[in-house]
Design brief:
By secondary structure, this protein is of the alpha/beta class. It has a single domain, classed as TIM Barrel (Alpha-Beta Barrel), CATH 3.20.20. Helices cover 31% and strands 22% of the residues. The strands form two sheets. The chain has an eight-stranded mixed sheet with strand order 3-4-6-7-8-9-10-11. A three-stranded antiparallel sheet has the order 2-1-5. Helix 8 links the parallel strand 10 and strand 11. Helix 2 packs across helix 3. The longest helix is centred in the last third of the chain and has 18 residues. It starts with a strand and ends in a 6-residue tail after the last helix.
Length: 244
């Protein structure tokens, strides 16, 4: 089964080299692979072109829908592996959408890239099967809070959060739009006993001005609770654009 990828231009898969913009690997040169499709629908999602296709009535703040044919591309694991290898990076970030929805073909892809370290960016609702899990060096788990618009019974699954919280490879990254969102993180941290140093708070925003404004009140909250703050480096460097 081929992989279903997002596109950075019609007919061009979103496979590229850049600096990781968020979380514990921020600033690190990596290869990126962006897969299409998602099981959640965040109102503020900045990659809605991976799931909000024409006919999808799930809400998004700008109500834009995307043509599936222009924004999805299917490629064999062999071709994707060749494109990733050609980028010359020693670390791969697999993102989406929700990449673990394609766990089977993703595991086959990583079999073809045995020497590359792998980060998975996931919403934390899906488990990686053993064949894939054994290849993952780092999970960047971003559970979706109430302001995402996703109901908690879909977005915050106790079995999955328990499993990720006990895995030393997991880092949690919470998107924060207003100070009250931190109260939800506090409740989750108490319930699931997140590892010290493995929780990041990241301001929601797709432009530098918004991110900086929110970081001004988010920084003292991180200091108060002992959590790390994640910037969105790629937004400052390249803007809200694909393939960055």
């Amino acid at each position: 089964m081929p992989l279903t990828l997002a596109t950075q231009a019609p007919g061009e898969p979103e496979i590229f080299a850049s600096l990781q913009g968020e979380g514990p690997s921020a600033g690190r040169p990596v290869a990126f692979l962006r897969l299409s499709r998602c099981n959640l629908a965040c109102q503020w999602c900045d990659t809605a072109y991976t799931w909000h296709f024409e006919g999808d009535n799930r809400p998004h703040r700008d109500d834009t829908t995307f043509d599936r044919k222009a924004n999805q591309l299917m490629l064999s694991e062999d071709e994707v592996a060749q494109r990733i290898a050609a980028l010359g990076q020693d670390r791969l970030v697999v993102t989406g959408g929700e990449p673990l929805l394609q766990a089977g073909p993703l595991a086959k892809l990583l079999d073809l890239l045995p020497d590359i370290a792998v980060e998975i960016e996931t919403n934390g609702t899906v488990a990686a099967p053993p064949r894939l899990d054994v290849r993952i060096d780092q999970y960047n788990v971003s559970p979706k809070l109430a302001h995402s618009g996703n109901p908690a019974d879909l977005a915050l699954l106790p079995e999955r959060l328990d499993a990720y919280a006990t895995d030393p490879r997991t880092f949690f990254k919470f998107v924060i739009a207003q100070p009250d969102d931190v109260d939800e993180v506090l409740a989750l941290a108490e319930r699931y006993r997140f590892r010290p140093g493995h929780v990041f708070l990241m301001p929601e925003g797709t432009d530098s001005a918004t991110i900086r404004q929110r970081e001004a009140w988010l920084a003292p909250l991180c200091l108060e609770h002992g959590w790390r703050m994640s910037d969105r480096l790629h937004i400052h460097l390249y803007g809200d654009t694909r393939g960055t």
